[in-house]
Write a structure and sequence with these properties.
36 strands, alpha+beta, 10 helices, 15% helix, 5-stranded antiparallel β-sheet
Amino acid sequence: MTAPFGSWASPFSPASVASSSPRIDGAKFVGDEVWWGESVPAQGGRLTVRSSSGSDILPAPWSARSRVHEYGGGAWTADADGILYFVGAADQRVYRLSPGGEPAPLTAEGPAHGGLRMQQGRLFAVREDLTVEPHVRGIVEIPTDGSAADDASVVRVHAQGEGFFAHPALSPDGTRLAWVAWGGRRMPWQSAQLRILSIADGSLGELPASTALQPEWQDDAHLLFTDDLGGRWALHRAALDGVVLAAPASPIAPADADTGYGLWVLGNRWYQPLEDGRIVAVRTNGRDAIDAISQHGIRRPLDVPADGHVSVDAAEGTRVLLSGNGSRVAPGVWSVDVDSGEVVTIAGGAPVDPSWMPSAQPIMVDGEHGPVHAFVYPPLNPTVAARDGELPPYLVFVHGGPTAHVTGAASSAIAFYTSRGIGVLDVNYGGSTGYGRPYRERLDGQWGVVDVDDVIAAARGLADTGLADPARIAIRGSSAGGWTVLSALVRGGVFAAGISRYAVTDLRMLDEHSHDFEQHYIAGLVGPLPEAEALYVERSPLTNVERIDVPVLLLQGADDRVVPPSQSEAVRDALAARGIDHEYVLYQGEGHGFRREETIVDALERELRFLGRVFGFEPSL
């Protein structure tokens, strides 16, 4: 059977996409079980903790979610006795949940918590207090007996200040604590320090580092961490004398790849040391690979299903827990035995059907600022074929961040389009992580220029190969990706339509409303104020809305604190004033990122109908 591209019947309904898109948030060995965090779209996107025994450890309506640094992460942990510790989404207090009991608060009302770590029976967290001026953050140790629920002074503060903190790591002998810190004028992928505290006498050391991530103790005398001094985040080992270096830190098995990426959330783990001295680590160059690194620095690749945004969450004996997504499997959690190679699927991780889910093909096109990386997902449907001579429409995906990256993962959200005859081009524009520091720094001072040039180059490159209909290429992005969408429409000439989800539209407005974590982010991406104010005005899509002459779909969360609705509404009003074809939808109860099942369903339906109307096909829903 033949049918026009875009109109193909598909089993990937909006509802099935919404229900198959849970977010995995860490995993941990707990006794004989494995626990993991998982979002539940059908329950308003709440994050529960589940067990390999088949039970939900955290019952509804409780949700584990941190708002530290706005993006949170590390909202739960557990001890060996099966006691869950989690951050309550509603009030940001830390709670203790014993088997058969009810959640009991461990911290007082007010501050937010995240990055929870249970180490040697001691509970550490990153704490953020926005109720005081200036705002204060730090590394704290929380009593697990509930004594701090009504008396905050009982909480032990190991480090505190107006800057930012992450990754507390306690030495095996319990005498020293390491963590990552950075100042508010730099993002952690620009500059982050590695600090070590003697808990007994309060002496503090700082190791030479550029953009340090994830300290972990290999033993009492050696600290592991990852840093990109050589242009790629690489593992390092530091020999210590107390809190100071005994010898310069040395790289471990360096490769032309990254072990680490942008520190947006507090729960990511890019490696784990094993008890025998080996290390299991992620190696990222666009996609991820997982290596076992011997005591002598020899890498041995592990055959695992996951190859996208993989987190090495925990280690026990010769086993590690991996969570992430993959190009051949759905997002999931896996237990991997490093010696035998046995891989056990704990949660999710179902193989995708290759007759319905196209394999993402990595491509590289020449751009004005250098090579541009992207992944191509061509239309694919085993029950229908295209009409002779017709080229498919394509939807260009632009990731947010902008300091982030995509990995070519299999996704029902992508199959939703490709199975209907709409190709997807997922672009890692200059500024993306996953390709080294020079590629990441290509966007410095050039946001709104390099990203736009690169998505245009990628779209044109695809059309030039004859794979896409050049007259039917649309562009879609969220947050910072939405900024690039609107900026590319302002540029004009390539994209026939745009889909913008909670997009940045006005840099001055964004700067005015930016939360602490991103307060100086724009200064690095564009320039500092007031010196660069002219650039802020010149590059903002809102300033140039009169140059947008193609249809636009605007989707926005009403409770978004990162990019308030006023930004999308300003673009809506400007488009309406000029009579430009547009749609605007405001979703109540949604913030920066859509989590509710009904929102995900409605947004996908609207996007497909919008593309059908613009490109002239009747979509199948």
